[in-house]
Amino acid sequence: MPPRKKSSFENFFSLKRHRRRLSRTAINVPTVDFSTLKEQIVEAGIPKQTRGSHDELDRHFAALRAEFSGQSELIFEHARLNVMLRREISPEKNYSRLAELYRLEAPYLLKNLNIRWMVSACDSIADWDPDPVARATALSVTILVNTIKIIESERYLSADFPKEMEPERIENVVTNLVPLFEGLSVFTVGTDDTLRNMRWRMEAGKRVHFSGAILIEVFDRLQVNDTVYARFRAMHHRQKTSWW
Fold this sequence. Notes:
By secondary structure, this protein is mostly helical. The protein contains 12 helices and no strands.
């Protein structure tokens, strides 16, 4: 059996959980509005990306400030809210503030957040939004990015990285069905319409909830960063089935 998530009863008696929720400063909501935060810059020295998290919340936020040094305080506030939600600190209040942040500043957030923090927002939506459609859309972002992450991780960890596609195999999938598993077959390089159709479905739902806008933004970025999507895009030649 896979490991299960702890119950609310078990969490209540978890000392570690309570330590991770204690804070002198991190739980304090900024006293200025979002537009003012957007104009303020985090000043915390040389930026350094965090890895993992401190049990002590104030230490974790100090590390986060260093990660966002040189960026807008609004972007840091986005991170603060998501960390608070992950630790289940005043979730109703903090999720309401996160949703309001996207309602007022979505274009700015989508332009300035990296994929890591857009996924974090989607995890928060999947955990706390009352709308099942929003939760499902948000979860699709997390699934998409985590799938790409393990694909690119396997590629890096392989002994023959980077490995080029073999021309004779490319020619084979253009003319023949090459089975994978469970009825799936190898993507037809250069012409396949699967991703175009998937993109159309994403577009249809992007205005329903801000999670839809995040999904489109993340998908677009996967086409230009060094991912399997970008590598297949570079080989695609049938314009009417392009997905970007």
